[in-house]
Amino acid sequence: MVILGIDPGSRITGYGVVDDSQHNPRYLASGCLRLKDDDLAQRLAQIYAGITELIAVHRPDALAIEQVFMSKNADSALKLGQARGVAIVCAANHGLSVSEYGPRQIKQAVTGTGAAEKAQVQHMVTAVLGLSGSPQADAADALAIALTHIYAGRGLVTKGSYGGRRSAAKGGSWRQFRP
Questions:
Q1: Is 20 a catalytic residue?
Q2: Of 27, 46, 54, 166, which is least packed with CB atoms within 10 Å of its CB?
Q3: What angle do CA 111, 59, 35 make, to 5 degrees?
Q4: CA 134, CA 170: separation in Å to the nearest integer?
Q5: Is the pLDDT of residue 140 over 90?
Q6: pLDDT of residue 142
Q7: Which of 19, 20, 138, 141 is catalytic?
Q8: Is-catalytic flag, 66?
Q9: Is 141 a catalytic residue?
Q10: What residues have CB less than 8 Å from 37, skipping those under 6 apart?
């Protein structure tokens, strides 16, 4: 099973692709979609196009994404929510199931503590996937999200108030409402 992990952002969206078909997570790709336009609508379109390309290249079986967390800046939280929404719609339009995981849950799954720092997440992702170097922070977060999805599938992640929620089955029923 190939998992596409997404760490959404309205300026930088991290992605990580992990293959678990041999029951040993294997790194396939990671990086960042760096959104250049000042217009939010154009940045959201770039996220959609970028994820569409990732799906075409890596052919994932599922998308795992970080849930929105409430920050002190409401405007930033709203933009983050819009970036997440675009990623989720893109995955649904391509027939992928979507699972969501909270920030603390991701840190707990990958490092053993929900209060881990970004450097700890990067270190553990590097170690678990046997990478020669540490990925950029947003890419490491996306890889951690993909790993969390794999661990959840094995029953190794407990579901809390921000527990992984799964969307409708592959191919979702939204298509019945198309004109």
A1: no
A2: 166
A3: 70
A4: 33
A5: yes
A6: 97
A7: 138
A8: yes
A9: no
A10: 43, 46
Q: Does residue 67 sit in helix, strand or coil?
A: coil
For the chain, the distance separating the N- and C-terminal CA atoms, rounded to the nearest angstrom, is 33
* C-alpha to C-alpha distances, 68 to 9, 21, 85, 96, nearest whole angstrom: 10, 29, 10, 20
pTM: 0.86
Q: Which of 19, 20, 66, 141 is catalytic?
A: 66
**d(C-alpha 4, C-alpha 95), whole Å:** 13
Helix (H, G, I), strand (E, B) or coil at 165: strand
pLDDT band at residue 95, thresholds of 50, 70 and 90?
very high
Which of 12, 16, 11, 13 is CA-nearest to residue 2? 16
Q: Report d(CA 47, CA 14) in Å as an integer.
A: 10
